[in-house]
Write a structure and sequence with these properties.
Layout lengths: L3 E3 L12 E3 L2 E12 L5 E7 L6 H18 L2 E4 L5 E3 H4 E14 L3 E5 L2
Parallel strand pairs: 1-5, 2-4
Antiparallel strand pairs: 3-4, 3-7, 5-6, 7-8
Length: 113
């Protein structure tokens, strides 16, 4: 199976968009990824109208990462020069989120507590 190698964690944005937000009012989350081998961090923002809970948004994001990884493995070079699949190297969690109102390109309103 063919694979791609990224030099830095931000190169992951070539394969996984940094932001995906549906139109409407619903929950959104910030997702932080951290590489075990390099210590680098990366941030994604996700908000899906179809997900009633913040945890559902994270579950959907993780499923997308696994799907991408199964189609074309993405490797990252560690500090030691060894290549590791991102799915085994990067841990993802959600440090926060809230509600969002998104009206296309017109406006985004965040509701945080």
């Amino acid at each position: 199976m063919e694979h791609s190698t990224i030099e830095t964690l931000t190169d992951l944005y070539k394969y996984i968009p940094p932001v995906e937000i549906d139109e409407g009012t619903f929950k959104y989350i910030q997702i932080q990824g951290k590489s075990k081998s390099t210590g680098e961090k990366i941030i994604f923002i996700r908000g899906y109208k179809r997900c009633p809970y913040h945890a559902d948004v994270l579950d959907e994001f993780l499923a997308d990462v696994k799907k991408i990884q199964s189609i074309q493995p993405i490797l990252i070079k560690g500090k030691d020069g060894k290549e590791v699949e991102i799915i085994n190297d990067v841990s993802f969690n959600s440090p926060g989120g809230g509600r969002i109102e998104h009206s296309g390109n017109k406006a985004i309103v965040l509701f945080m507590v």
